[in-house]
């Protein structure tokens, strides 16, 4: 933060830090000519508060550079799932591939993801980040983005769905058929005695008739 005032001074805005209150402030000066630079300076402060290095956070002051802070913890149901998917995205090779394809830098800090780059690349990088925390591996989204960029160069017309790879589901839940509660099952096989009663063969034997009379 020692060089932050120099960075802001180059953009004609004032920067101050209060270590007692743990707060950072920006303000316009008499030399400020661009009113929107005040909003971009506020974005730089938010990035610094999330642990983004000053060199990268200062990029938010440029005209064609945008930033966004995505609360990725809201995309997961529990803490263990969040940590597992966050570890999946924090792979340096994955982050480097995202940076090369989208021209955007992704920083994971706590329960948020900070993205800095161009407007179009920002949307592509955000899709990869959110898809990762929705249980879609970032490798699949990176492959999709590579194919889309190749199709844009070749100027392919029509739908691109047949060219874009789709992730395959590796885990399939098996449905367990359960008998409905209440009542008797419909597929009860009749006993031998019941079949003989229907045909009348049961009553041809005298001992069976006496047995029924004793029961009554």
From TrEMBL:
Q: What InterPro entries does the record point to?
A: KH_dom_type_1_sf, KRR1-like_KH1, KRR1-like_KH2, rRNA_assembly_KRR1
Q: Where is this region: Disordered?
A: 167-201
Q: Where is the composition biased (Basic residues)?
A: 168-181
Note whether Flavoprotein occurs among the keywords: no
Q: Compositional bias (Basic and acidic residues) at which positions?
A: 188-200
Q: Which Pfam families match?
A: KH_KRR1_1st, KH_KRR1_2nd
Q: Report one GO cellular component.
A: small-subunit processome
Query: Could you tell me the keywords of this UniProt record?
Result: Nucleus, Ribonucleoprotein, Ribosome biogenesis, RNA-binding, rRNA processing
Q: Name one GO biological process term.
A: rRNA processing
Return the PANTHER family for the record. Answer: HIV-1 REV BINDING PROTEIN 2, 3 (PTHR12581), KRR1 SMALL SUBUNIT PROCESSOME COMPONENT HOMOLOG (PTHR12581:SF0)
Q: What is this protein called?
A: KRR-R motif-containing protein 1
Q: What is the species listed in this Swiss-Prot or TrEMBL entry?
A: Homalodisca liturata
């Amino acid at each position: 933060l020692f060089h932050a005032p120099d960075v802001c001074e180059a953009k004609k805005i004032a920067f101050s830090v209060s270590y007692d209150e743990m707060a950072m402030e920006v303000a316009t000066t008499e030399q400020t000519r661009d009113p929107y630079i005040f909003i971009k300076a506020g974005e730089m402060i938010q990035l610094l508060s999330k642990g983004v290095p000053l060199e990268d956070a200062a990029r938010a002051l440029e005209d064609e550079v945008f930033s966004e802070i995505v609360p990725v913890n809201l995309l997961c149901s529990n803490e263990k799932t969040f940590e597992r998917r966050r570890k999946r995205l924090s792979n340096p090779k994955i982050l480097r591939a995202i940076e090369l394809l989208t021209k955007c830098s992704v920083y994971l800090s706590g329960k948020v993801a900070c993205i800095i780059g161009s407007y179009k690349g920002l949307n592509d990088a955000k899709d990869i980040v959110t898809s990762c925390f929705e249980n879609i591996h970032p490798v699949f989204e990176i492959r999709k983005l590579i194919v889309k960029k190749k199709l844009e160069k070749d100027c392919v017309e029509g739908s691109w769905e047949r060219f874009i790879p789709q992730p395959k589901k590796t885990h399939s839940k098996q449905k367990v058929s359960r008998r409905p509660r209440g009542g008797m099952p419909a597929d009860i096989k009749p006993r031998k005695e019941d079949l003989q009663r229907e045909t009348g063969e049961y009553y041809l034997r005298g001992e069976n008739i006496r047995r029924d009379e004793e029961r009554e």
